[in-house]
Design goal:
With 218 residues, the chain is an alpha+beta fold. The protein is 17% helix and 32% strand. It has one domain: Fumarylacetoacetate hydrolase, domain 2 (Alpha-Beta Complex), CATH 3.90.850.10. Bound molecules: zinc ion.
């Protein structure tokens, strides 16, 4: 079992499910050749995929196109079903930064065949996190800058204000379809600039006022 890490708190919380939103920035939907979605596109990752900043991402040997996706991640701190604007906002107890590592070659093959993307998104070390910043310590303004560089060259840089669906809209949408529980994490989608990484590469990512991640590809 994996546990969350918190800034300024000794709270002990096992990680629940990782619910991820696809194509939540218009410019990223366009770079992948997809439509800007009418509703959030949702997929899951298991908690066992999680590693923390400082640990290496292990490149699976059955893919030739491992991509980075840097994302704002919501920490769900209380159970919620059929969220309203108010209860969805209250269920988000904090924020962290995450990398949604993706096997893009497998994803395109699965999409072309109409098969589930599961194995393109789920593999050991496919979700990199840093410490959760609780809302008591920082209230998200909604225009923080999220960025990622590989070997010192910046590839992704956007304001989270460019998200199509806001955190509250995402929590309302998901919680109408499945109960969200304390310890669940929601990956809110990546801005444009996703790209390939290979063994030996160093990834550095940051989300203004929330935290940063450093990892290597092994
Ligand atoms: Zn993603």
């Amino acid at each position: 079992m994996k546990y969350l890490k918190f800034k300024n708190s000794s709270e002990v919380t096992p990680i629940g499910k990782l619910v991820c939103v696809g194509r939540n920035y218009a410019a990223h939907a366009k770079e992948l050749g997809g439509e800007v979605p009418e509703f959030p596109i949702i997929f899951l990752k298991p908690a066992s995929n999680v590693i923390f900043s400082g640990e290496p991402v292990v490149h699976p040997d059955y893919s030739n196109n491992l991509h980075h996706e840097v994302e704002l991640v919501l920490y769900i701190g209380e159970d919620i079903k059929n969220g309203t604007d108010e209860s969805a906002a209250n269920a988000i107890h904090g924020f962290t930064l995450g990398l949604d590592m993706t096997l893009r070659d497998l994803q395109f093959e699965f999409k072309a065949k109409g098969d589930p993307w599961t194995l393109a998104k789920c593999f050991d070390t496919a979700a990199v996190l840093t410490e959760v910043v609780l809302k008591k310590d920082y209230q998200l303004k909604g225009n923080e800058i999220i960025s990622l560089s590989v070997n010192g060259t910046e590839r992704q840089n956007s304001s989270i204000a460019n998200m199509i669906f806001s955190p509250v809209e995402i929590v309302k949408f998901i919680s109408k379809r499945m109960t969200l529980e304390k310890g669940d994490l929601i990956f809110t989608g990546t801005p444009e600039g996703v790209g390939r990484v290979v063994p030996g590469d160093k990834i550095e990512a940051s989300l203004e006022n929330i935290g940063s991640i450093t990892t290597f590809i092994k």
